[in-house]
Amino acid sequence: MVKVKFPDGTVKEFEDKTTVEDVAKSISTSLAKKAVAGRYNGELIDYNAELNEDGQIEIVTKDSKEGLQVLWQTAALVLGASLFELYPQMKFGEGTVVEHGFFFDTDNENGQVAEADFEKIAYRMQELIKSGIEVERLELDEKEALAMVDGDAYRMELVKESVVSGKVVLHKLGRFVDVSKGAYLQKISSLKVFKLLSVAGAYWKGISSNPMLQRVYGTAFYKQKDLDAELLRRQEARERDHRVIGNDLDLFFVDPEVGAGLPYWMPNGATIRRTIERYIIDKEVSRGYEHVYTPILANLNLYKQSGHWDHYREDMFPPMDMGDGELLELRPMNCPSHIQVYNHHIRSYRDLPLRIAELGMMHRYEKSGALTGLSRVREMTLNDGHTFVTPDQIESEFKRTLQLMVSVYDDFNITDYRFRLSYRDPKNTHKYFDDDEMWEKSQKMLKSAMDDLGLEYFEAEGEAAFYGPKLDVQTKTALGGEETLSTIQLDFLLPEKFDLHYVGADGQEHRPVMIHRGIVSTMERFTAYLTEMYKGAFPTWLSPKQVTIIPVKNDLHLAYCEELRDRLVANNIRVSIDERNEKMGYKIRQAQVTKIPYVLVVGDQEVTTNEVSVRRYSEKETVNMAKDKFMNEILADISSYSREK
Q1: CATH of domain 253-531
Q2: d(Cα 401, Cα 390) in Å, to the nearest integer?
Q3: Over pLDDT 90: what percentage of the chain?
Q4: Cofactor binding mode, per the note (predicted)?
Q5: Handedness of CA 291, 292, 298, 304 (dihedral sign)
Q6: For the chain, which terminal residue's Cβ has fewer other Cβ atoms within 10 angstroms, N or C?
Q7: CB contact burial 238-249 (16+ within 10 A = b; e otherwise)
């Protein structure tokens, strides 16, 4: 007999080898009809999997998030089985679930899969589904499992990695055998609504020295309306993708001959970045921050002392041997540099809080497959800051920093975010500094501050920095994922490691506490985020070009346009004149395509009345107004950060 504990705390005994399906039926017939899998002792398992040990169970139904993942895992298997039939020479990596669907990695020396093949592949998938064939769950020893995938080097490697207690679980559909992990539907007839989406290259196991495989992506749902909603979401995501918009608006590019993850900022993108940089520096200086410049290189010993070398080495570039015993490292973090600034003078309690900030360039060794436009790069400039405080200043400074963050978000009209308190995983002593008292104290302090502010948050174990807990601001990306935009981190560790002191009111030395914070993330990630949030239609104050002036006829109206341009430029407004030999309608359409906030058309009437004909982006109507009125309007638009008044 096995003892099974249910979510409500009750425990029932079942005969050995009872399946998830048997347990679901013992609860109710209606539950059994909706159930597709189970979660047993924290692991997602097949509906027909046997329970051979005591444990805790949750029944997974098709209307749950995990129920959808089971459908996606099954769809990946059906895709693999269909490709196996259509391409006899094909080899298979892993077929698994991603955030909004599934993929299967394949390799075919006779030609990889192309999107043009999707119709043929989908037809074969539909044939399999209609055939009534069922998924077989096999539990074999390693030798038997290897024999099942003989000749496929990728699946043979997966088999060897999947051995647990001498056994390997495989899933078989027709003649195709899959070694991927996950739970599957036994009956594939539920897979009626699916769509193949795209293909992409992916290194085997994400390692650039391994072979490049072809990754086939798809998605599936139990209902057509859910697929329609997902396809609409994906279309919206494509329209917001900062890589596409960045190319259309000539913001940045990455040249593979120069290096992956090393973006070039074109004049338009550089203007946006420069505006953000000037804004955040002025904002921080007004809040008591002192801005500095520090080197992007440092002796490796600095990062050994900080702990980055021990805890962060895999994300750092290899040290540069200067030939005389000195090893220099491209900095992955700015905090050790700001600690040097703090330590350069003897500090008194009267100096604290000491707020040091920098737009600090950093370098991180990201794998090629993880690099994405501006949002994931190898060289980045972080809006970084470190505040050194006395212990009794922690809560007030934390609140002050959070207020600054919220104020910045208001100026950029960022509203879709949530707060995450990120704690250590106490079991992971390799990643996190092993000091229980320090972690308990700092995590409790952070939580208390959030509770005092009355802000909603969720907690996540294992997301802390190696030296302390943090508050992360989580935002949605255009592709539907979630990433950290801003962070405030509490740190008792680095002041200890660098033996930092301040002289207290008692004349004795005391240890300060560090608060790390990044308000607008890196310039690269923040620009990518804003590009997607605004869909390239930047508010006037951020737009790389704020006004374009179009003369009806160059020979009659250009002089007036130039006079107007000079006045706008004198007021720090970014403006150009479109004097190309093109039709008026074409020029106006181009200004709309490039999402310029204001288009001014100048003809005989405007010259005669000393006015401008104004057309705002996305509006169809043009309005004639005096030059001074327009000047006041655009200056007010810029000074209010283009917010509704």
Answers
A1: 3.30.930.10
A2: 15
A3: 64
A4: Binds 1 zinc ion per subunit.
A5: negative
A6: C
A7: eebbbbbbbeeb
- 183 contacts 37 by C-beta, under 8 angstroms: yes
Measured between alpha carbons, how far is 330 from 324 in angstroms, rounded to an integer?
A: 18
Domain residue limits, the chain: 2-61, 66-240, 253-531, 540-640
311 is in an annotated binding site: no
Handedness of CA 27, 29, 30, 35 (dihedral sign): positive
Q: Is omega for the bond preceding 263 within 30 degrees of 0, making it cis?
A: no
Q: How far apart are CA 340 and CA 302, in angstroms?
A: 10
Cα 143 from Cα 168, distance rounded (Å): 9
Single-letter amino acid, residue 192: K
Tokens of 228: 């329609």
> What topology is assigned to 540-640 in CATH?
Rossmann fold (3.40.50)
Nearest residue to 191 via CA among 223, 155, 214, 156: 223
**Cross-strand bridge partners of residue 420:** 458, 472
pLDDT, tens digit (0-9, with 9 covering 90-100), for 557-610? 999 999 999 999 999 999 999 999 889 889 999 999 999 999 999 999 999 999
Contact 37, 182 (CB under 8 A): no
498, 495, 595: which is closest to 245 by C-alpha? 595
171 marked as part of a ligand binding site: no
CATH number of 66-240: 3.30.980.10
The tokens for 306 are 């900080």
Reported pTM: 0.79
- Cα–Cα distance for residue pair 31/542, rounded to 1 Å: 54
Of 484, 47, 497, 88, the residue nearest 306 (C-alpha): 497
Question: Per the annotation, does 386 bind a ligand?
Answer: yes
Tens digits of residue pLDDT in 102-145: 999 999 988 888 899 999 999 999 999 999 899 999 999 999 99
Range 525-541 average pLDDT: 94
270 CB-near residues (< 8 Å, 6+ apart): none
363 neighbors 378 (Cβ within 8 angstroms): yes
Report the amino acid identity of residue 573: I
Beta pairing, strands 379-389 & 327-330:
unpaired
CA distance 296 to 314: 18
Residues 6+ apart with CB under 8 A from 402: 453, 455, 471, 488
CB-based contact 615:588 (threshold 8 Å): yes
Burial of 292 (0-12, 13-18, 19+ CB in 10 A): middle
Query: Following DSSP, what letter does each residue of 599-640 receive, concatenated?
Result: EEEE-HHHHHHTEEEEEETT----EEEEHHHHHHHHHHHHHT
3-class SS string, 33-89: HHEEEEEECCEEEECCCEECCCEEEEEEECCCHHHHHHHHHHHHHHHHHHHHHHCCC
> Three-state secondary structure along 481-510?
CEEEEEEEEEECHHHHHCCCCEECCCCCEE
Pick the CATH number of 2-61 from 3.30.450.40, 3.90.10.10, 3.40.190.10, 3.10.20.30: 3.10.20.30
Where residue 286 falls (left for φ over 0; alpha for ψ -120 to 50; beta otherwise) is alpha
Q: Closest Cα to residue 186, out of 196, 169, 172, 167?
A: 172
Beta bridge partners of 567: none
